[in-house]
Amino acid sequence: MATILCYGDSLTWGRIPNGGRYPKHLRWPTILNGLLGNQHQVINFGLPGRTTLWNDPFLEGRNGLAYLQASLETFGPVDVLVLMLGTNDLKRYFHVGAFEAAKGVEKLIEKSRIADYHDFPSPTLVVIAPPNILSPTGAMAESFDGAVEKSQHFHQHYQDIAVHNQCLFLNAAGILQPSEADGVHLDTKANEQLAHAVYSLIKDVIKN
Fold first, then answer.
1. Measured distance CA(179)–CA(19) in Å, rounded
2. Residues 153 and 96: beta-carbon distance below 8 Å
3. Which positions fall inside the SGNH hydrolase-type esterase domain (predicted)?
4. Structure confidence at residue 187 as a pLDDT band (50, 70, 90)
């Protein structure tokens, strides 16, 4: 049985555009588990507001780098680690762009490959470039001011990081877009699309 850890933000957690959380069966990690089969375990460890490595002054515990090692030990040994972070890095008060978000992902990759005292093997890494942000609406319009243009560069920088670090790579923007309801989060169709894309990417590295 393989353990697949999906380490992300609200797009992984299952945020419904404009508020709420999807039932488990509509979240993409759960759909992925169904595609892989019940002999495998897909763990949804998404957290709304999580960044790659920035400390959010308004939300506690959102620094992805600070909690990654504990997550790998908690759920380990992890066979496949799926990283999809960076959307929240583009909030205007962090003052960074897609390049810095990609470098944050690279730090996560490096952290995941550091040996721990359990002697767990390093997981296979999947790097997902987040989908492009559309026009954010409502309360997110201010937080993501300027993020639409920045998000257009996710693909380029994330692919460079993935190739350089020998990770599997998926460009989410190539297969889906966020809901027009809020411009950031995924609708049910996008959850389905993402699950099937990740399945196609990892199915051959999963041991039955």
1. 12
2. no
3. 6-187
4. very high
